[in-house]
Amino acid sequence: MSEMRASSNRQLLSPRRRMQVASVFLALICCIHVWPLLWMVSASFKPNAEIFAGGGLIPSAPTFDNYRRAWTEAHMSQYFLNTLFVTVLSTLIVVLTTSTMGYAISRRHFPGRGLLVGLLVFTLFVPQGYTIIPVFELLGALGLSQSLWGLVLATSGGSFVVFVMLFAGYFSQIPKELEEAARMDGVGFSRTFLFVMLPLARPIVVTVVVLQVLHAWNDFLLPLVVTLANPALRTLSVGVYAFKGENYIDWGGMTAAATMSILPIVVLFLFLQRYFIDGLAGAVKG
Predict the structure, then answer these.
(1) What is the mean pLDDT of residues 192-204?
(2) CA angle 210-212-216, nearest 5°?
(3) Residues 23, 43: Cα–Cα separation, whole Å
(4) How far apart are CA 106 and CA 172, in angstroms?
(5) Calpha distance 133→172 (Å, rounded)
(6) In whole angstroms, what is the distance from residue 256 CA to residue 59 CA?
């Protein structure tokens, strides 16, 4: 009898059974996380009176009026272009600057290197809210406080240190023989970085692109402060917040605008998720 119980317990704890239990548990967690997204998409096709009527996810009479009002009357089309402008340019700036800094930190030994890395890591513990006023003052001194170019520069410094460390971790694993071979062929430091090292770091480049796009596209506090005096410069995240009035909230228009703002990010991540995972795995390998 005891042998039969031991055999039964081994079956219950078999790797296949544990995998099945884990899959069911993760599926439940996934459903909990996906539910707000499904509710938002469903509400975007409902009139305001139906959203909280308790009719379920499927709209009784689907309408695209919320999308029309959000795109035209609420100027989400202009906010979409503003967000695209800020996201693309800030991503280009961040990839170029962080990759060069990560390469220099990982491949060159210079006096004060450890102190520099320590100072960069220290800035991770400074909340964004503490830097809003200095950033705004700096943009004003540069004459960029009321322009999208100023918002581009401000957004480019959001997760700067994390990206530098990712590039430094990835470049440190590349064999030094590649640099030595390039140096023997007469290739300088800059060209070695651009034509040898950076192409090898494609997974981490994609990772940084995805993370920076997510940051720039969804950032709220910084665009809110910069665009207070000029609503025409608003980004999508600030534009969605504009649907909330003092005494009334346009839930239909808000959910439609939020759906439109989230859709490009979801599509981008679906296309680049493999490179994103490979880049994170490569950056922390070993």
Answers:
(1) 83
(2) 120
(3) 30
(4) 5
(5) 36
(6) 14
Residues 56 and 260: beta-carbon distance below 8 Å = no
What distance in Å separates the CA atoms of residue 286 and residue 284, rounded to the nearest whole number?
6
Q: Is 165 helix (H, G, I), strand (E, B) or coil?
A: helix
- According to DSSP, the residues that pair with 244 across neighbouring strands are 249
State the Cα–Cα distance between residues 239 and 69, nearest whole angstrom.
13
Distance set, CA 94 to CA 1, 31, 189, 253 (Å): 66, 34, 20, 33
* Encoded tokens for 52: 């909280």
Predicted model pTM? 0.80
For residues 120 and 157, give the distance between their C-alpha atoms in angstroms, rounded to a whole number. Answer: 12
Angle between helices 76-107 and 202-218 (to 10 degrees): 140
pLDDT of residue 181: 81
Q: Tokens for 23, please give them.
A: 């899959």
Q: Which candidate, 151, 19, 143, places its Cα nearest to that of 83?
A: 151
Half-sphere exposure of 277 (CA within 13 A, CB side): 5
Contacts of 208 (CB under 8 A, 6+ apart): 94, 95, 98, 99, 163, 166, 167, 279
Cα 169 from Cα 285, distance rounded (Å): 8
pLDDT tens digits for range 256-269: 888 888 888 888 87
User: What's the mean pLDDT when you consider all of the chain?
Assistant: 81
- CA–CA distance, 267 with 269 (Å, rounded to integer): 6
Q: Is 74 helix (H, G, I), strand (E, B) or coil?
A: coil
Q: What angle do CA 184, 186, 187 make, to 5 degrees?
A: 105
State whether residue 144 is helix, strand or coil: coil
CB distance 175 to 134 below 8 Å: no
Residue 140 CA to residue 138 CA, distance in Å, equals 5
Contact 75, 235 (CB under 8 A): no
CA–CA dist 201, 220 (Å, integer) = 30
